[in-house]
Write a structure and sequence with these properties.
single chain, 218 residues, mainly alpha, two-stranded antiparallel sheet, 10 helices, 2 strands
């Protein structure tokens, strides 16, 4: 699924268009599906089947939409702002999986698909790009807002009380303490590809805002 900074950047682009949401709730909603905490068995609780509303083993943003957003949204409360962010996270992950499917057709991916190091290699590029982006963009919403969140309620009963805040702290520490080497060569994903993905996904989301919610961000 898409990295957290990718979700932050899409959140920013939508907020720049004066989307009428509660900013912090919308921001946290955009990382909401990733708030399962990994236990000693290496599995997240709640499971990704629950957090990502999977149907037949696949992320299904429409499943979340039908359950939580197929109603009158205006005005957008804090809770609905969170739900909207959560929904767009799932939409973004669906688009990311399409990108990954295309990338797997490339020679460099074909060479490592069956390797036990596959996930480590590709994610080193994914998150390396995150670290580089945050280093170069101190005005990103992660620095200005996300890292300063000290309290947050649970809007979905799949999460135990306080779990979302715990994950907010985990994500904050991860990005505050991680770097990528200056000489790292990005083989499996480039900054330009991420930029293009964000631009394309924002357009997908804007179309959904218009079609499903009659909200037109400018």
């Amino acid at each position: 699924m898409a990295t957290w900074v990718t979700h932050f950047r899409i959140t920013e682009e939508l907020l720049k268009r004066n989307l009428p949401v509660s900013q912090i709730e919308f921001l946290v909603g955009n990382i909401g599906p990733d708030c399962g905490l990994v236990g000693e068995d290496g599995r997240p609780t709640p499971s990704k089947e629950h957090t990502h509303f999977k149907v037949d083993g696949k992320i299904n943003s429409n499943s979340f939409y039908q359950k939580h957003l197929s109603c009158e949204l205006q005005p957008l409360s804090r809770k609905l702002s969170y739900y909207l962010g959560y929904y767009f996270h799932l939409v973004t992950d669906e688009e990311w999986l399409k990108l990954l499917a295309r990338k797997k057709e490339e020679k460099v991916y074909q060479e490592i698909l069956d390797s036990p190091d596959y996930a480590r290699l590709v994610k080193k590029d994914w998150y390396g790009l995150d670290f580089q982006y945050l280093k170069d963009h101190k005005d990103n919403i992660f620095w200005t807002d996300f890292q300063h969140i000290t309290d947050f309620p649970e809007y979905l009963d799949i999460f135990p009380e306080g779990q979302t805040l715990t994950q907010i702290k985990n994500i904050t520490e991860f990005y505050q303490t991680s770097t990528v080497s200056e000489d790292h060569e990005f083989i499996y994903l480039t900054a330009a590809e991420v930029d293009e993905f964000i631009e394309d996904t924002v357009e997908v989301v804007l179309n959904l805002l218009n079609e499903r919610f009659n909200l037109q961000a400018v």
